[in-house]
Design goal:
The protein is mainly alpha-helical. It is built from eight helices and no strands. The longest helix has 34 residues.
């Protein structure tokens, strides 16, 4: 027998107005991320204790817009990191194409070893996020983790790969 957790008033309003919130986010520019934004909003309102809210629907719309802005900032930061990574790795090497390919394969193998050393979950989360382009909220749902755990795992991977990159640059 499964006992369902109690749903508070704000959660009830969220569930009853979910379609409106989704349309609101789509119109405001969330696009394909609207579902992820709503998932993040749901996680926030279910994990926090709230004082009574005078106008819960207005509160939810404002909170949804704030979560959407957080997502957009995250996308901008990710795009900047990817551009910086690409710019830094687009150095014109003096080696012949065959040598460059060999060096690239060796470095890729080292990067895979670094990720593997962090554990299978961290490596898989990094691959899904960076290589498959999966959103953090979707990864969190797939792995049954909080968004914060996914972010922490990504930070571990980025930190380890940045250290490896520094080693490569020193060579």
């Amino acid at each position: 027998m499964t006992i369902a957790p109690a749903i508070d008033g704000l959660q009830r309003v969220f569930l009853s107005e979910r379609a409106k919130l989704l349309r609101f986010l789509a119109v405001r520019g969330a696009g394909e991320d609207a579902e992820d934004v709503l998932q993040d909003l749901w996680q926030r309102i279910t994990s926090a204790r709230h004082e009574p809210i005078g106008d819960p629907l207005s509160y939810l719309f404002r909170a949804a817009e704030n979560v959407m802005r957080d997502h957009q900032r995250s996308h901008v930061s990710r795009a900047r990191r990817q551009r910086d990574w690409h710019d830094a790795s687009a150095i014109d090497y003096d080696e012949q194409p065959g040598e460059r390919a060999l060096i690239a394969r060796e470095r890729l193998q080292e990067a895979e070893q670094v990720l593997a050393a962090l554990g299978p979950r961290v490596a898989e989360i990094f691959r899904k996020y960076r290589l498959e382009g999966m959103g953090q909220a979707a990864i969190a749902r797939e792995f049954g983790l909080s968004l914060s755990s996914v972010e922490k795992d990504l930070h571990k991977a980025y930190r380890a790969l940045a250290q490896l990159r520094a080693k490569f640059d020193a060579e």
